[in-house]
Amino acid sequence: MTEATLPALIQQMLQPGFYPHPVTEPIQLIQTHISYVLLTGDYAYKLKKPVNFGFLDFSTLDKRQHFCQEELRLNQRGAGELYLEVLPITLVGEQYQLGGIEAVEYVLKMRQFPQESLLSTLFEEGKLNETRLEELGRVVAQYHAEAQTNDYIRTFGEVPNVRAAFDENYQQTEKYIGGPQTQAQFTETKQYTDNFFAERPELFASRIHNDYIRECHGDLHLRNIALWQDKILLFDCIEFNEPFRFVDVMYDVAFTVMDLEARQRKDLGNAFLNAYIEQTGDWEGLQVLPLYLSRQAYVRAKVTSFLLDDPSVPATVKSEATKTAADYYKQAWEYTKPNLGQLILMSGLSGSGKSTTARSLARQQGAIHLRSDAVRKHLGGIPLWERGGDDLYTPEMTEKTYTRLLELGIILAQQGFSVILDAKYDRQQLRQEAIAQATKHQLPIQIIQCTAPLEVLKERLNNRTGDIADATADLLASQIKQAEPFTEEEQPYVKIWDTTQPQQAQLK
Predict the structure, then answer these.
(1) Fold of 119-334
(2) Of 50, 65, 96, 217, which sits 20 to 30 A from 338 (CA to CA)?
(3) What is the β-pairing status of strands 103-111 and 83-92?
(4) pTM: predicted TM-score of the whole model, two decimal places
C-alpha cells in the first residue's frame, strides 16, 4: 500500500505537525492485518483497523474504543512503562488532530522502545542466557499470581471450551495435508489431543478448582517480551478475544518454551520452565504442558500455512513458509510422542554441589528439577526467598517434604518426564522408599552422590548468596553424624560425583 492509498488519517499522522511533541523523521509506519502503528521517536501510536474476522471484531468506533481501553488495561499488568493512555482523534474541517471532544477515531499512545530490546532480537544476537531465562520464569510467575480469575473466567477451563480451539485448528489445516503437513502427523496429533480430553477430565477439573485458569497473556513468545532499561516487560497480550486470554497458566508457559525449543535451545526453555514452576509450586501443572506445547506449535504452523493461500505473497516467501510450517507441524507432533520417564535422586551434604549438578543435568536432559528447599517452603506457606524458621525444619516437616517430593516425582515420571529429586537423601529409609516406588511403577532410578572435601563444603556455604536454601556451615557436623551409608542393595543405583572436578569427567 503506497502512501497515496493510505486512509487520510494515516497520511496526516505521517506528518510531524500532527503531534504535540518533537518527532524523529521520517515517521515510520508498521502495518499488520489488524492495526497501524506509527513510530515517532519517543512515542508509538497504535490504531485498530475497522475489520471483523469473527474471532476479532473492530468494525465500529465503539468497539475500537473498547478494545483500545482493554489493550491499555491488560498490558499495563506486564508493561506499564510502555502503555500510557488512549486518546481521541477528532476532525476539524479536513484536518485530524489528537484530543478533542467528538472522537472520529481512538489511538493508543505508547512509549517507543528499540527493537533491539526484544527477546527475539537478543536471542538472534546470542545475548540470552540461562540466568536471564530464569529471571523471565520468575517474572511470568509473578504476572500469573496477580492475574485475575473468577467464576466466569474459570468456565474457560472446562473441557468443551478448551478443546474448541484445538478442533478449529485441525479443521482449518486439513487442506494443508500433502503440503507442509503429513497425513500421519495430522492423524496422530489429533488422536493424541482427542484422547487427552477424553481420558483426563479430572485433570482439567483440578486446574479449575485450584485457580489456574486466569486472565493470562495469551501470546507469550519472544517477540512479545522485551528487556528495556534492565527490566523484563511482557507486552502485546491478547485483548480482542476472551478464549485466547482466559486460559490455563500453562498455556502461556508453553508458548515461551515452545518458541525457545523451535529455535533449537531446549536448555533455555528448561531454565525458564524450572524457574517458573519452582516459583509457583505448580508442579502438577506439568501434566497439561505437553498438550499446550503441541497446541502452540500447531498454531504457529497453521498461521504460517495461511500465507500459502494469499495470492499477493511471492513464490519465494511461500517456499520459505512451507518449510517453516512443516517444521512447526512436526514439532507439534513430536510433543505428542510418549517418553520414558525416570527418577534421579541427588544425595549429599549441604554445599556438596547437588543443586548446581542437578541444574546442569536438567539442562542437558530436559529434566524437571525439584528442589527440596522449594517444596518445603511451598508446604510451609512462606516465600521462597524468605529464610525459614525452626518450625520449617522439624522432623514432621522434613517427612512431609520428602513425601511430597517423591509423590511429585512419581506423578511426573509416569507422564514421561525425567525428574531430579534434589535433596540430601542421607537416610536409607528415604532412599529405599524412592527405589521401591520407582520399581513398583517400572521407572528407571539413579542416585547421584555429590562429594567434596569438608573445607570446600564450608567455604561454599559461607559464600552462598542469592539462593533459596537456608543451610549454613554450622549444620555440617550434625549432617555428617546423621548420614547413613548406602546399603549393598542401594549400591547398583549409586554414582559418586566429585563436584570439585569438571562435569565432563563425571559423565565418562
Answers:
(1) Aminoglycoside 3'-phosphotransferase; Chain: A, domain 2 (3.90.1200)
(2) 217
(3) antiparallel
(4) 0.93
Domain spans of the chain?
3-112, 119-334, 342-507
Whole-number Å distance between alpha carbons of 252 and 280: 14
- Do 436 and 485 touch, CB atoms closer than 8 A? no
Dmax (CA) for the chain in angstroms is 92
* CA-based nearest residue to 450, from 492, 399, 371, 503: 503
| DSSP notation for 89-122 | EEEETTEEEEB-SSEEEEEEEEE---GGGBHHHH
Read off the pLDDT of residues 288-330 as tens digits, 9 standing for 90 and up.
Answer: 999 999 999 999 999 999 989 888 889 999 999 999 999 999 9
User: 3-state DSSP helix/strand/coil percent for the chain, to nearest 5?
Assistant: 55, 15, 30
How many other C-beta atoms can be found within 10 angstroms of the C-beta atom of residue 8? 11
**CATH class of domain segment(s) 342-507:** alpha beta
Q: What is the pLDDT of residues 462-472, one digit of tens each?
A: 887 777 776 77
> Which phi and psi (to 5°) does residue 468 adopt?
-80, -10
The answer to whether 43 touches 64, Cβ cutoff 8 Å, is: no
| Closest residue by Cα to residue 506 from 385, 346, 350 | 346
